[in-house]
Amino acid sequence: MLALAECYEKSNRPASAWALYKKVGARAAAAGQTPRATEAETAASRLEPTLPRVRFVAPSAPPPGLRVRYGTEVVDAAAWAVALPMDPGKIEMTFEADGRAPKKLQVEIPAEATVTDVAVPDLEAQEGDHDRMHPEREHTEADSGPIGPIGIAGIVIGSVGAAGAIASAIIAADAKSKWDEAVAADCPGGLTECSSLEGIDSARAQGDAGTVAFGVGIGLVAVGAGLLIYDLVTGPSSSAPAVGVAIVPREGGFDAAATARITTW
Predict the structure, then answer these.
(1) 85 CB-near residues (< 8 Å, 6+ apart)
(2) pLDDT tens for residues 223-257?
(3) pTM above 0.90, yes or no
(4) Closest by alpha carbon to 149, among 105, 83, 216, 202?
């Protein structure tokens, strides 16, 4: 599979290559094949900043069952909050919804690492021929892409969480340094004999912010890992998760939570 990922990369299919590298890395790590896992993860990390992405923009009141088809993939509206990696070039997308006439769009995906917004067209109501509005949605591993929308969403969410956790460590280290400087400058006789608490309070506030960022980051990493494992176990799915992160103020700090909802057919 590594050879296939390299073939995708050489044929200007970076998103397909990236997804397959991630899948190979996860499977190799689970099997204890550390060198193979490292090789695959290194290749995926190298490609990730270069990936073109697509963000689907749904109407304010989307019709039931709204989804988009492209290639062998079917992505429900629940996954559209995440910008999905996609190979560059002209892609035909078909937008569908229950009881609505489908519409096709030709979308040009640039080769650069940009996010292309695709607005969902209005889908007119359709009477009769109900069965035609519900085509078979089953996917097998042979005719689906290297990884499904759930796995891709998990990888993106986990990457964001890891970046947040790293940023929180930097914030916390800087806060500790500022705390030590403030104690040395304003409290030479100990914390009970401070001439000013401004520096200490500022360092404490920064430390609290770092704690919140770390909690959110770790939560997103856990959600992303869970979605990726789910995709690897069940195979590429035609649906993907709706993911949310909430930061709620409370006395003395914040509470943070990350949630995910998975819908399958």
Answers:
(1) 14, 15, 18, 19, 51, 52, 53, 152, 156
(2) 877 776 777 776 654 444 444 544 444 444 444 44
(3) no
(4) 83
